[in-house]
Amino acid sequence: MKNIFYALCALALLSSAANANQVSKSQQRYVKKYAKQKNVPDPAQMLLNTDPEPKLSSGFANLYNGKNLDGWIQKGGAHKYEAKGDAIVGTCVPGESNAFLCTERTDYSNFIFSCEIKWEVDGNSGVMFRARVKDEKGKPRVYGPQCEMEGINNARGWSSGIYGEAAGGWIYPLWLEAHKPVRESLKKKGWNRLTIKADGDTVKTWLNGIPSAHWKTTEYKKGFFGLQVHRGKNGIIHFRNIKIKEL
């Protein structure tokens, strides 16, 4: 009887793991929508993040000094970035292309990065990491992996997924049944904590402590961070507690 019990338990675990990699019914339309994007993964092959969020209490350096934007440089469109007390505030300027407030340092490799994000006015945003710049039609273009923060009125729920900015589109969409908890974790009012851990070829993310993405890369090994204000008609996004612990 004991052997039968263990066999049933094993079958239950296998079934659970299989279901975890199924696309949620509410998300199935996106599989077809993004099927032609360069980076889009096969849902059955996606790795799952089951790790607890890293501890954020010690060993971190602040990337924002709380006074001004020293150590940062704006790239891309002419959206507005301001130092306002404990937060950096990005404001969308209609008609401008995507903009990024980037760290002057460009060689961040292995790290735990964390920040908190709040929307004063809804708008698409995100955090570039291990990012780079390339020439695009004679102009510099920020590209690379971005931890997406898609805003508070987007019902899709992919905030903290990974998008290839000017680099092939969605890398890690949050469309699996296993991603349901993180899809439901975004706070429309108040602050949302985004955490990214990059160690060698492994990148994992968390939103408000809930496991999100798990991605492997040998292409993006180091680069800079960039706080995005996406092109659009509106958007005012606050970033605070921006910090890093290098590994």
Give a brief outline of the structure.
With 247 residues, this protein is mostly beta strands. The chain has helices at residues 2-20, 28-33, 180-183; strands at residues 61-62, 72-76, 80-84, 87-91, 99-103, 111-121, 125-136, 139-149, 162-165, 169-172, 192-199, 202-207, 210-216, 224-229, 236-246. Strands 1, 3, 4, 6, 11, 12, 13 and 15 form an 8-stranded antiparallel β-sheet that branches.
List the helices and strands and how they pair.
Elements: H1 2-20, H2 28-33, E1 61-62, E2 72-76, E3 80-84, E4 87-91, E5 99-103, E6 111-121, E7 125-136, E8 139-149, E9 162-165, E10 169-172, H3 180-183, E11 192-199, E12 202-207, E13 210-216, E14 224-229, E15 236-246
Antiparallel strand pairs: 1-15, 2-5, 3-4, 4-15, 5-14, 6-11, 6-15, 7-8, 7-14, 8-9, 9-10, 11-12, 12-13
Give structural notes.
It is a single chain. The protein has one domain: Jelly Rolls (Sandwich), CATH 2.60.120.560. It has three helices and 15 strands. The longest helix is centred in the first third of the chain and has 19 residues. It starts with a helix and ends with a strand. It is globular, with a radius of gyration of 19 Å. The strands form two sheets. Strands 1, 3, 4, 6, 11, 12, 13 and 15 form an eight-stranded antiparallel beta sheet that branches. The protein is mainly beta and about 250 residues long.
What would CATH call the homologous superfamily?
A: Exo-inulinase, domain 1
CA distance, first residue to last residue = 48 Å
Number of domains: 1
Which blocks of ≥5 consecutive residues have pLDDT under 50?
Answer: 5-16
Q: What is the highest CATH level, the class?
A: Mainly Beta
Q: How many extended strands?
A: 15
User: What is the CATH topology descriptor?
Assistant: Jelly Rolls
What percent strand?
35-45%
Tell me about the largest β-sheet: 8 strands, antiparallel
Query: How many DSSP H or I helices?
Result: 3
CATH architecture tag? Sandwich
User: Would you list the SSEs in sequence order as H and E?
Assistant: HHEEEEEEEEEEHEEEEE
Radius of gyration: 19 Å
Portion in helices? 10-25%
Shape: globular
Give the integer mean of the pLDDT values: 93
User: Could you say which structural class the secondary elements and strand pairing correspond to?
Assistant: mainly beta
